[in-house]
Amino acid sequence: MLDDIASAKDEEELQRKKVELLGKNGFLRNELARLGSLPIDERKAKGHELNRDKSKIEEAIKRRQEELASVKLSRMLEKERIDVTLPGARVSAGGLHVLTQTINRLVEVFKNQGYELVTGPELETDALNFTSLNFPPDHPARDAQDTFWATDGRLLRTHTSPMQVRYMLAHRPPFKVVAPGKVFRNEATDITHEAQFHQLEALVVDKRITMGDMRGAIASMATELFGDGIKTRLQPSYFPFVEPGAEFAIWWENPRTGRKEWLELGGCGMVHPNVLKSVGYADVTGFAFGFGVERLALITHGIPDIRYFHHNDMRFLRQFTGGAV
């Protein structure tokens, strides 16, 4: 019996042996049934013998089960074995998108100047995106910032300026913050316009903040980005949420033409009193300035078409990651 168990080829054969020996109609059950027909003296001795046999059979079955399981595991490990001496498959490394690199560089510049990084939702309320920023419902400036609306009355933000209101409602001056993020405009795309792009803007609020402070902040940022000797200028312009407002530009050498020229980067101005009033501020002033991240990336890398940023063309992306993508 024990030899039959030890020679079982697999679990199925071992199970048959177990049923034959220990099952309801198996060998041991039948032998136990015959005990009643034996004389009392023989019955006791035979009972002890059958109990010993049962223990030996159960131990033999358990031992063979463990052996078969070990064999099965060995075969599985052999089948799944990896030859570590073979050369591994080359996995290409990823890389940061050129826009992410540009945003990271800008954030680093502003952090070095003591600004706090803040971010907010891309789905905004009309109040935060327009009304609190001095865009009344019938203001014509809203036409230039048409966007995409949700069924609940919210909209995809048209600029990062709602973060000004969000931050001011939750904090008291003084502070310096920088807010990068994705914005949306419902407009036709061409080589310089996209329906989805990125902005970054800075906000500073304290007592007695002046246009001179803003001019210095812009000049300091430009120096960090483009090096010593860079010149900046302000030209009067209109934005509903600042008064007075201006556009700022840098005097730089165009890498495509090799000529020096003024390049407009973005808008700026002193935070409008109506905006400060909407967040409950009094006896403070502030300035804000911002610009498009794509525009900065376009000019610094000489990229001819803003749509390249979203085409996912690996030939384009590898130019900015050292071929790592």
Polypeptide structure, described:
This protein has 325 residues and is α+β, with helices and mostly antiparallel strands. The chain is built from 11 helices and 9 strands. The chain has helices spanning 2-6, 11-22, 27-34, 40-79, 98-112, 126-129, 162-170, 211-226, 273-278, 293-301, 314-317; strands spanning 116-117, 123-124, 155-156, 175-184, 196-206, 231-237, 242-253, 260-271, 285-292. Strands 1-4-5-9-8-7-6 form a 7-stranded mixed sheet. Strand 7 (242-253) and strand 8 form a beta hairpin.
Ordered list of secondary-structure elements with their pairings:
Elements: H1 2-6, H2 11-22, H3 27-34, H4 40-79, H5 98-112, E1 116-117, E2 123-124, H6 126-129, E3 155-156, H7 162-170, E4 175-184, E5 196-206, H8 211-226, E6 231-237, E7 242-253, E8 260-271, H9 273-278, E9 285-292, H10 293-301, H11 314-317
Parallel strand pairs: 1-4
Antiparallel strand pairs: 2-3, 4-5, 5-9, 6-7, 7-8, 8-9
Helix pairs in contact: 2-4, 5-10
Question: What characteristics describe this protein?
Answer:
11 helices; 9 strands; seven-stranded mixed β-sheet; alpha+beta; 325 residues; two-stranded antiparallel ribbon
